[in-house]
Amino acid sequence: MGLVKSMANEMMKEIGNKSREFYEFVLPPVDMHLDDEKLTVLIDLPGFEKKDIRLSLDENILSIQACKEEVEESHHMICNQRPNVIDKKIRLPVDVNDE
Asked: pTM for the complete prediction?
């Protein structure tokens, strides 16, 4: 029975790793709202703390970088589905004053 459990655990880890690779590609989801006075950018970064996130602006390119420490594996069947690193650049639809 130990071999079957070990194989199942390895399979679930592999599923988790593939899921993580997918989320690193598509995340983070971003919404933008433009009104008369401002552009609001909403970025969903679940699992990251404010201290883990860096934003920078170069012309009209917003860069989002987030990095968190990996948590040691526990008894979860599926782990590592969420990315530990995000590096995304978004072209803003308007010129931005970065003050």
From this structure: 0.62
Q: Record the tokens describing residue 48, joined without a space.
A: 């990251």
The two three-digit tokens of residue 44, written as one number: 């969903």
Give the span between the Cα atoms of 50 and 33, in whole angstroms: 22
Q: In terms of residues, how long is the chain?
A: 99
Residue-level pLDDT, tens digit, the chain, 99 residues: 577 777 777 766 676 666 666 665 666 788 899 998 888 999 888 888 999 999 999 988 999 999 887 666 656 555 555 678 888 888 998 887 766
The SS3 assignment for 71 reads coil
Structural domains of the chain sorted by starting position, each given as residue range(s) with its CATH number in brackets: 2-91 (2.60.40.790)
